[in-house]
Write a structure and sequence with these properties.
Layout lengths: L18 E5 L14 H13 L5 E3 L2 E3 L3 E3 L2 E8 L11 H6 L7 E11 L3 E4 L8 H10 L5 E8 L7 H5 L5 H24 L1 H8 L4 H4 L4
Parallel strand pairs: 1-5, 1-6, 6-8
Antiparallel strand pairs: 2-3, 3-5, 4-5, 7-8
Helix pairs in contact: 1-5, 5-6
């Protein structure tokens, strides 16, 4: 393999490669306000905050121009394939920027986490999330960084698929919006300060109790 080409199993980031911040969700206005699109909304929020438009086509994904975070370069990415087959949308993006799996940060909703909780991880199983299943299947590895946004409310949700594809309930909107805002900060912390410090800061955070981080 030529130097600089995408290598999903590479364990070392190239300082020349930008971070690829990938939000998972389903494309189209039908899904924009659903629980399952929390990852998309985090990326869209980051785009607004950083003054970057995520509108350039790269295969089956939309990407931003280069943005600066913590003195490093990053690209915002929104796969345009549906969640359960989003994995194949990403190799062309990695190839374009000569990036590896270790350059990716995946942001997504997680029904295993209560609403208002975040969890950063360095690796791990899909945990039933079809988007993560697709990524692991595509790359043959689970060695990529994740920022998980909890979406499980205290009430009974019923059928899982119906719930995640439903619009966010009015009484969940405020806390989920706060969680998405803090998830954007967590991504920035991960890039600027490293995964260990970001995990220490955000993994114990419960927005329902503390009201977020200023």
């Amino acid at each position: 393999m030529e130097e600089g080409s995408p290598n999903p199993k590479s364990e070392i980031r190239s300082p020349k490669s930008p971070w690829l911040i990938v939000g998972l969700g389903n494309p189209g206005p039908k899904y924009a306000a659903t629980y399952h699109n929390a990852g998309f909304r985090v990326i869209e929020r980051m785009g607004r905050d950083l003054g970057a438009r995520v509108d350039e086509r790269c295969g089956e994904a939309l990407i931003s121009g280069k943005v600066g975070i913590g003195g490093q370069t990053a690209i915002l990415v929104l796969p345009q394939a549906y969640m359960n087959r989003c994995g194949p949308a990403l190799p062309p993006v990695l190839e374009r920027f000569e990036s590896t799996l270790q350059d990716m940060i995946i942001v997504y909703d997680d029904l295993a986490l209560p609403l208002g909780r975040l969890r950063l991880r360095q690796r791990g199983s899909a945990g039933g999330h079809n988007g993560i299943k697709s990524l692991i299947s595509t790359f043959g590895s689970d060695e990529f960084l994740r920022v998980r946004v909890g979406i499980r409310p205290e009430r009974e949700t019923g059928d899982v698929r119906d719930f995640v594809l439903s619009p966010v309930a009015n009484n969940d909107k405020e806390i989920l919006d706060q969680a998405e805002a803090v998830a954007a900060k967590a991504v920035e912390s991960l890039i600027a300060e490293g995964i260990e410090k970001a995990m220490a800061l955000y993994n114990g955070l419960d927005l329902r109790e503390r009201g977020g981080i200023a």
